[in-house]
TrEMBL record:
This is DNA polymerase IV. Mg(2+) binds at D17, D115. The gene is dinB. InterPro entries: DNA/RNA_pol_sf, DNA_pol_Y-fam_lit_finger_sf, DNA_pol_Y-fam_little_finger, DNA_polymerase-Y, DNApol_IV, PolY_HhH_motif, Rev_trsase/Diguanyl_cyclase, UmuC. It comes from Fructobacillus apis. It holds the Pfam family IMS. It catalyses: DNA(n) + a 2'-deoxyribonucleoside 5'-triphosphate = DNA(n+1) + diphosphate.
């Protein structure tokens, strides 16, 4: 029965998890941190002993530091531990960058955390492992961050896959290998198995997927309640949960940085025109509309002005209109002297374009 169900599941699911996300970002931005044991969190010495480790790099993990550990405890485990305070604005911005890359592959995206998501790429003709490789390459090109990826036909296997080879690993679990993969999995690695469940399993003498597979559904229900069913199907490499598309984009936009500052109003207008047509093309392609249009301008002194206009109805996707709005803001912010280094146009308050219902009835 389970084998029959498995065989029917022909989806292509990818689970992506950026390795030690916050820590990796901080090491990327300050390479001196790479060789040091690093914790993202408040330094207990500077904050009266308060603080929790949000993420630790792999050097610190080897010394026994892990996320959610109290900072004092972490420092006891690893006395030369370096603390860097988290910068969530930065992490959110990078997460948005990564999500924009996800959208190059599919619109069926279920974000789990800033650094983690499920992608259903079933509708793409390329093979899932090829797509996973491309995805990893794109993330590296755009962010210089590594990730671990699991590829399979359901979410649970994809997630187990991404956890299998960390960091910077890819694990592909096709149908013909799935049952063996699950059989060989240590019981602690099954989804949802925490300390309490593990204790119960120890008492029952259950050590791995093979032992779990041998337990009856009734027994699993007796010991674990409704979670018993989850375990029963996990042991059979079967899971029908869909990738829940919760990825309504926060924003669609484009920025241009200029190596040589722009000094001419007409050149600025032309640059906005180019940005506007790119943003509109992107919105059209994704069938989106936005109620807020934000214009960003940065000058030579790194002075940045960002101004948004919000309407009660979505903006029409008209580049000429967008350029007019942008130039109004530009003229207000930079009345005379100018040396422009960056221009940006972004739509937010995004909603989907409604299809015309008429066509349905006309057919
Ligand atoms: Mg991660």
């Amino acid at each position: 029965m389970a084998e029959f169900l498995q065989a029917k599941d022909n989806r292509k699911i990818i689970h992506v998890d950026i390795d030690a996300f916050y820590a990796q970002v901080e090491m990327r931005d300050d390479p001196r941190l790479k060789k040091l044991p690093l914790a993202i969190g408040r330094d207990p010495d500077k904050h009266l002993g308060h603080g929790v480790v949000a993420t630790a790099n792999y050097v610190a993990r080897k010394a026994g530091v892990h996320s959610a550990m109290g900072s004092i405890e972490a420092k006891r485990a690893c006395p030369n531990l370096v603390f860097v305070a988290p910068d969530f604005d930065k992490y959110r911005a990078i997460s948005a960058q990564i999500h924009a890359i996800f959208h190059e592959f599919t619109e069926m995206i279920e974000p789990v955390a800033l650094d983690e998501a499920y992608l259903d790429v079933s509708s793409n003709k390329m093979s899932a492992p090829t797509l996973a490789a491309k995805l990893r390459k794109r993330i590296w090109e755009e962010t210089h961050l590594t990730c671990s990826v699991g590829v399979s036909y359901n979410k649970v296997l994809a997630k187990l896959g991404s956890e299998h080879h960390k960091p910077n690993g890819v694990t592909v679990i096709p149908h013909n290998l799935a049952q063996d993969f699950v059989w060989e999995l240590p019981i602690k690695d099954f989804r949802g198995v925490g300390a309490k469940t593990l204790e119960k399993f120890e008492k029952l003498g259950i050590k791995d997927g093979r032992d779990l597979y041998a337990m009856s559904q009734d027994d699993l229900r007796v010991y674990f309640g409704s979670f018993g069913d989850v375990l029963y199907w996990q042991a059979r490499a079967t899971h029908f949960g869909p990738v829940k598309d919760r990825s309504i984009r926060q924003s669609v936009g484009k920025e241009n940085t200029f190596e040589f500052a722009l000094h001419d109003r007409q050149v600025v207008e032309a640059a906005f025109k180019e940005l506007a047509s790119k943003v509109v093309a992107n919105m059209e392609k994704r069938k989106l509309l936005g109620r807020t249009l934000t214009v960003k301008i940065r000058d030579d002194d790194f002075h940045t002005s960002t101004k948004g206009i919000t309407q009660s109805v979505p903006f029409e996707l008209d580049p000429a209109f967008m350029v007019r709005q942008a130039m109004l803001i530009f003229d207000e912010a930079y009345p005379d002297d100018m040396a422009i280094r960056l221009l940006g146009l972004t739509f937010s308050n995004i909603e989907e374009q409604k299809y015309q219902a008429v066509s349905l009835f006309e057919q």
